[in-house]
Structures are given as structure tokens and as C-alpha cells.
Design brief:
2 domains, 15% strand, 17 helices, Rossmann fold, 411 residues, 6-stranded parallel beta sheet
């Protein structure tokens, strides 16, 4: 349980709102290339502003050392455009000027402060082990001590950063109610449903290169789902676990540091072999050409996609499903010859009558790219956060939302 916007009257109140509007940008000119995450928080910002709240937004863009680590001036312009109202940008975080501007806000005003990761307390690596970091400890940071006295409520709508434990994400909860924004509320409710109580038959499609994360997801859901359909590096690990010799593909798995996962895959197959599906044919990359091969012997060349027969088998399973969760592409969809598996599986998902959820990251990008986004019930805004949630891991922000509910809920 957690507090939502329905639990409070925000008129005349000052609200600090943490969002994740970390966008792909052109490092040459700072132009925002994809504003999806900004559009996703529109509902929360509008609801707060229209209810008479004085909204101060905290957000980050990338991290120190990256080419897209940039100020948030363009984000403020894009927010103003999407919200159809002025979002005032301040290029500082807690200076006297910022504090005076916040104190002088009127009902409905919106301010966006500078990239929160410009401040060192927000990026301290030692704080990643969130179990050791209490809200009180985060509240002792200069960032929180300077800003917290200015606000009545803390609204957190940064689901994509919910697996982080940085001050701006959990620190304010020591001083005031921490409330889920509309995006956070939707993400948690949808993902909880498909993890804890999915309608059967339930299908998880797990592909891509993050095999360690996919195996964590499998371990968490295999007792509650009916089928796991594998693709990408994930599938290759399970094929090797089944005894296939995959040549160059094994070298890639070793280079990624995933060799130990082969034993884990064997253990999962021993217990759940009837639920875990691997490709029966694959598409090899031979000098850039797509060459399909049935899996009836050794494979030396690089596997870049699932084959047509596998696509048919997977699509039939998906067609009958009542719950479908997809995370990770079936192959190297960035190469036209090897996008077929990902496209056709997305097509099967889009045309299924079941409840359809797409995880974040590459599969979300592919869903947008190939035109299936409007046929999906929920496309998660999280990458690492979504995977952590599907894996059953505790997310710092979600844990603090639960704690705040216990502390501040109405009798």
C-alpha cells in the first residue's frame, strides 16, 4: 500500500516532485531526441498544478562523465510545450535565489530545478547499497536539509529510478508524506498484477543480452506462469545448457561474463523444462546475410535471431495467452535482416486478446520503432527498475512509499 494523489488536498501547498525525464539527447546541441518520459509525467504535473499546488520538479539527465550529461533547460522548454503552461527553469538547485523563488511561488506555478546529479551527494557510489541507507541518513544531506523545510509534500513519480536510493528519491520522506504520482501508481499496480497474480495462461517472453536479469525474472515467476519463451543471448545460454555446441556464441557469452549462468539454466531446466521454450531454429549471420538453420547439430556461426519455425511456435502460444510480459528482443533487431523475429513476436503480442505488458529498455524502443505501441496495454518506463521489480527485488523508492503509508496514512 502507498499514498496517492487522491489522499491529499494540494491547494496552496508546496510540493516537491521527483520525476525521471532522463531523455536521449543530441550531445552536440542538447536537443531532446525522444520526449516519451516527459510525456509520461504530464498527468501528475497537470493534476498537481490544476489543483492549486506550487510544484517544484527535481530530475536528472544522465550521469557525470557521459556525453549526454547536460543541464535541464531544454527539458523545461519541452515540459512547457507538452503541458501548455510555463515551466520556469532555474539553473541552480538550492541557492538563495532558488529558495526565494520557491517562497514566492503562487498557486499552480511550476519550477524545474537544475539537473540534480550536478550535485555530488546525488551520485555518491557508496550509497547504492540502499539497505544501509535510512531515510534519516538521506535526510541529513545538505541537499535535503536545504530544500525540505520549503515543502509540505513529496510526490515521487520517478519509477524508472525506483531502484536507486539517492537523496532526492527517498530523503524527503523523513520530513513529509511521500506520495506516488500517477505514473508510479500505474507502474506498480500493473507490474504487481503480472508478477503476483497473472491471468492464466501467462507467458513471459525473455530475450536480449541481459541474461543475468532474465534468469532472475524466471526464478521469480516460474511458479506462477505457464510459459517462458526465450530469445537472444538468453536463449543461447539455455541451448548450451541443453547440450548444444554453439561455437562463437559461447565465446560471446564468456566475454559478457555469463558462463556461470549456463549451470543456473541447467538447474532451471531440470525443474521447469516443460515451461521453458528455446528456439528450434535460428537465423545465422553469415557475412551479413540471414541464413536460417534448424537446431539439429552444432552451430559455429553467430546467432542473430530466432528462425521462422520458432516464430510460429511462439506466436501460437502468445495467441492463446491471457497475460503476456515481454522483456528483451528476440535478436539483433537493429540489423534489418535480423529484426524479423522481434517484429513478428511483437505483432503476435499486439494482436493477442490477453493483457499485454512490455518491459523497458530495448524492447520498448523496438515496440515504438515498429509501430506497435498503441496496441500494448502497458509499456513500462523503467529499464533496470522494471527488471528489478519483475525479479522480485526490493526497490528503495517502493519500500519508502510503503513506509510513508504506514507513517502518514489517515486513521
Amino acid at each position: 500500500m502507498f499514498l496517492t494523489l487522491d489522499d491529499f488536498d494540494f491547494e496552496g501547498k508546496r510540493v516537491v516532485l521527483r520525476v525521471d525525464i532522463n531523455c536521449p539527447i543530441n550531445p552536440e546541441n542538447g536537443e531532446i531526441l525522444d520526449d516519451k518520459r516527459i510525456r509520461e509525467v504530464k498527468k501528475t504535473i497537470n493534476e498537481l498544478s490544476n489543483s492549486g499546488a506550487r510544484v517544484v520538479i527535481l530530475a536528472h539527465q544522465s550521469r557525470p562523465g557521459k556525453k549526454d550529461f547536460a543541464p535541464l533547460e531544454e527539458h523545461a522548454k519541452k515540459l512547457s510545450e507538452i503541458l501548455h503552461k510555463e515551466v520556469k527553469y532555474l539553473d541552480e538547485i538550492f541557492s538563495k535565489r532558488v529558495i526565494n523563488e520557491i517562497k514566492n511561488m503562487e498557486d499552480g506555478d511550476i519550477i524545474l530545478l537544475e539537473n540534480i546529479r550536478f550535485y555530488s551527494e546525488e551520485v555518491l557510489k557508496d550509497w547504492k547499497k540502499w539497505e544501509k541507507i535510512t531515510p534519516k541518513k538521506q535526510a541529513e544531506t545538505l541537499l535535503i536539509k536545504r530544500l525540505a523545510p520549503l515543502f509540505d509534500y513529496f510526490v515521487n513519480d520517478a519509477f524508472a529510478a525506483a531502484h536507486r536510493a539517492q537523496p532526492s528519491l527517498v530523503g524527503f520522506s523523513y520530513y513529509m508524506p511521500m506520495i506516488a504520482g500517477r505514473l508510479m501508481e500505474k507502474e506498480v499496480n500493473v507490474l504487481s498484477k503480472v508478477v503476483e497474480n497473472p491471468d492464466s495462461p501467462a507467458v513471459y517472453v525473455l530475450g536480449g543480452a541481459k541474461a543475468d536479469d532474465s534468469i532472475k525474472v524466471m526464478k521469480n515467476v516460474l511458479d506462477r506462469v505457464d510459459y517462458i519463451l526465450t530469445g537472444g543471448i538468453v536463449a543461447n545460454i539455455f541451448l548450451i545448457a541443453k547440450g548444444y555446441n554453439l561455437g562463437k556464441n559461447l565465446e560471446i557469452i564468456k566475454n559478457l561474463g555469463y558462463e556461470s549462468l549456463i549451470e543456473e539454466a541447467k538447474n532451471l531446466l531440470e525443474k521447469y523444462e516443460e515451461k521453458i521454450y528455446t528456439p528450434v531454429d535460428v537465423a545465422l549471420n553469415i557475412n551479413g546475410e540471414r541464413v536460417e538453420k534448424k537446431l539439429n547439430g552444432d552451430v559455429e556461426e553467430l546467432i542473430n535471431d530466432i528462425g521462422e519455425e520458432t516464430i510460429k511456435i511462439y506466436s501460437e502460444i502468445i495467441k492463446k495467452a491471457k497475460t503476456i510480459v515481454a522483456n528483451g528482443p528476440m535478436g539483433v533487431f537493429e540489423l534489418e535482416n535480423f529484426a524479423i523475429g522481434t517484429i513478428k513476436i511483437l505483432d503476435a503480442i499486439a494482436h493477442s486478446k490477453g493483457f499485454k505488458v512490455i518491459g523497458g529498455g530495448h524492447i520498448a524502443a523496438a515496440t515504438e520503432l515498429f509501430g506497435y505501441a498503441d496496441k500494448i496495454d502497458h509499456i513500462s518506463t523503467g529499464g533496470g527498475a522494471t527488471l528489478s521489480f519483475l525479479s522480485g527485488e526490493k526497490l528503495p523508492v517502493i519500500e519508502m512509499l510503503k513506509e510513508s503509508y504506514s507513517k502518514f496514512k489517515h486513521p
